[in-house]
Structures are given as structure tokens and as C-alpha cells.
Design a protein that fits this description.
This protein has 106 residues and is α+β, with helices and mostly antiparallel strands. The chain contains 4 helices and 5 strands; from the N terminus they run βααβαββαβ. The strands form 2 sheets. The chain has a 3-stranded antiparallel beta sheet, with no helix packed on it.
Length: 106
């Protein structure tokens, strides 16, 4: 089973820059995942200042606690020719080589 929250900011009522607020928010999804034995996907945006910048965990909007707490952070980015790249920014259970490989989506 899978729960998708699109977008995280629509449900988050705390201060996005406060680590303690973000960790409390994320804890609720951890409880859901464990209780129902399901995966949880949270969507977010990158900072406006990061448009055009190289993919990086620090580009995720809000508190760094979001990136620190989750197991996987992927960035979906458009290419010049209209395709999309799925870029691993943080993935706990991949090899270094796999983490450095973007996936081309057509």
C-alpha cells in the first residue's frame, strides 16, 4: 500500500524552517507507515532560488529536518528537450554509483 501527500506544505501547519515542527509532522507519517505497513511519499518543492541550480539536498524548501528524517529524496527536473530526469539526492539503501545516476523519464 502507498500513501501520497501532494504537497507536504498543504498539510504542514508549523513553521517550515523549524526543525522541531517538521520532525513532529513527519513523526505522524512514520506512525502511519508502521501501523499500516505502507510506504509514504511526501512531495515538496525546491526553493525558488534553486531554479537553474545544480540538484542538491539543500535546495529542498523548508527545514533541513525534512531531508534528514526521510530515507529518500528525489528531484524531478525538466530537460531542455522536454524529458524529465529523476535525480537521487538522498537514498539510504543504494550504492554510491546508483546514487549518482539520474533516471531519464520520457
Amino acid at each position: 500500500d502507498l500513501v501520497i501527500v501532494d504537497a507536504t506544505a498543504d498539510l504542514f501547519e508549523g513553521k517550515s524552517w523549524e526543525a522541531s515542527d517538521m520532525r513532529s509532522f513527519l513523526k505522524e507519517f512514520s506512525i502511519i507507515a508502521q501501523r499500516f505497513q505502507c510506504a509514504v511519499i511526501l512531495t515538496s518543492h525546491i526553493k525558488k532560488s534553486a531554479y537553474g541550480a545544480a540538484p542538491d539536498q539543500e535546495n529542498v524548501s523548508g527545514s533541513a529536518a525534512l531531508v534528514q528524517k526521510v530515507r529518500c529524496v528525489l528531484e524531478l527536473r525538466a530537460t531542455d528537450n522536454g524529458n524529465r530526469l529523476l535525480i537521487p539526492l538522498k537514498v539510504n539503501h543504494l550504492t554510491t554509483a546508483e546514487k549518482e545516476t539520474a533516471i531519464l523519464l520520457r
